[in-house]
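FW: tagging you since you asked about this chain on Friday. Here's the raw sequence from the shared folder, copied in full. Didn't touch anything.
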Amino acid sequence: MIRPKSYATFRLLAVLITIVLIATHQYLPAKILSLYPDTERLSWIYSPHSEGTEPTDWIDRSINHFRCNYAPGDAYSCGWSLNLGPDRTTGIDLSAYDGLNIFIHYKGNAPRIRLSLRDFDPSFSDIEKYDTTSKVMSTAIRTSDLNQPVYVQLSEFSVAEWWITEFDIARQYSAPSMNNAIAIGLDFNVHSDNEIRIERIEAVGQWIKKETLYFCIILFWMILIVTEVLWRFYLINRKTKADTQRINNLVSEYKKLETEKQQFEALSTTDVLTGVMNRAGVQQFLQRLFESNFSRNQMGVMLFDIDYFKKINDSLGHDAGDVVLSEIARIINEQVRQTDIFGRWGGEEFILICSQISEERLITLADKLRETIEQHSFVIDDQLIKVTVSIGATTVKATETFEAVFKRTDKALYNAKNSGRNQVRFVSP
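HL: got it, structure written out here
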């Protein structure tokens, strides 16, 4: 898994590399293909041999130094040509280059020299007539620019109109093409006396064209962005599945707890008089609850004691006491939630265990129950009497035992009774 910090570092590094590539691209060394001098490439000179003119001839063939005289009346000009490939129909691909570096030494009176390229393509070239049917492309260089390095862009070359017309070339083949350049040459298109020495011809290009570089950079960032989006989608999807599994586990745990609660209730015993749990039933529930892994955070406990209950028994009889116990149990049982555990703890004491309740809500509930009982009229042998209760309450810490909780609750009840009864006292854990 890619860590967020590692990915941020990688992305910053990618930004820096992108900036460096864009800034330094123009300073990269050029891609150079030497066309001449090359001992394996054949070169030759040609000219018409009109009467009364000096023939075109080599001055020093070893360095391609020759004389070229194009006199009036000559059928065509004189010139020099260099084969670029191993044979006359197989050349080299110049389409990946931008131009030509040319260094020609020149003496003469011609205003311009014509630089030409021939490209052989079976689509329009005849292998038997390669010298005429190969595509002819040319451009002109001023002779005043010679005797020093000259850079000629390949985009300057145009296809000869006479070649298109003579061979009836289709429109799609009439544009310059240099995928299979078989020859490069130079000649003169005006009558002149000329002395030429070819020193160097080389194709020049970029290892990586600016358009290609920018395309690769854009492609890289698109891939990076798409990858990041897909990766983030994968992480979100995985987190969603994990959350769903966690929710399912919680639901399963909740159902399990509900089942256990029902089992606890089934196993518990019921107080015959009041119809609520008796002490044994409450203790069974509490034992399983406090021994399980169930979270006991946000749990509260109340202990109720009927004020002056002995006096009721003594003055009105035990039957009256039983009525009071049953009625109080009914009032409390109707006010609490189904998830709360309520039972008779013994004698005139009742206990209430509330789940998912805060300290404030616990105190509010206890006071509400106390007021409800205080305001209730108990009917004993057609006689209305008032009864009050004292309540001790506390909340439960996650790791403590019920014995510790009950001791604190009992202390709170003791405080309520000693403070005048008919009140709620809370002791914090």
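FW: The chain has a mean pLDDT of 88.
HL: agreed, and The chain has nine helices and 19 strands.
FW: great, closing this out.
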